[in-house]
């Protein structure tokens, strides 16, 4: 195969994913960005300006001149949106940290299990996906409410004297986030840990390392790619989560997902809602870029 044919083949292979990203990411993002630079209007669509394709160069000029950054100035100057962004980041970071603490030993136990049990353990982790996400969140309402299963069990055991107020708090949101996104942390970690060479652990043990030392010095560092991938898979969607804060957090829990829904459906302010969506994308894009750069450096170091 000639060099020209090889370049052509690589271009053909890359074309479908590039077209997919362009059609389902870049084009929707460009539309959202344009709406975020518009102003609300009582019309259809509910924003101005709208490009007049028949207007020629003058139409394009008038269209571009009418775009402005007022909505982003509103986001920067209003404490409501700053508090929502900070609360989203805080809850997502805390929930991700909890998932790392919980998911790492689960994935490690699954990876160390016998080959006969590993498929069964993976199936048990995936089983919650077989049930509607909304139904699972409603189930947590039944568990966490004052007269729910958790308080009834604690009262029966005599561990508490009065029902705990868990529902409609940030604690309930953290519980819901941790439960809903646990498979996204466990499965990437398990995929990496199950492929680790057992000889590395055996060599560390032969050198006198205890099982705990082997885990912290050998297994965990080599599992870092799965750990980071799982953290990103959990953190990114949790920042924009809407259903869990709305159902478990109540009116006191403010996150960007709820603000976005409120601006879009309640206030009918599509431009401001689009600005919140762009802000949300910029927030989650940072960790992805950092992870990509870290992976690139790790690959170069390995070579």
From TrEMBL:
The chain crosses the membrane at residues 84-108, 120-141, 171-193, 214-239, 270-291. The keyword Membrane applies. It is found in: Cell membrane. GO terms for biological process: transmembrane transport. It is a multi-pass membrane protein. InterPro entries: MetI-like, MetI-like_sf. Keywords: Cell membrane, Membrane, Transmembrane, Transmembrane helix, Transport. GO terms for cellular component: plasma membrane. Residues 85-291 form the ABC transmembrane type-1 domain. PROSITE patterns: ABC_TM1. Belongs to the binding-protein-dependent transport system permease family. CysTW subfamily. PANTHER family: INNER MEMBRANE ABC TRANSPORTER PERMEASE PROTEIN YDCU-RELATED-RELATED (PTHR42929), PUTRESCINE TRANSPORT SYSTEM PERMEASE PROTEIN POTH (PTHR42929:SF3). This is ABC transporter permease subunit. The lineage of its organism: Bacteria, Pseudomonadati, Pseudomonadota, Alphaproteobacteria, Hyphomicrobiales.
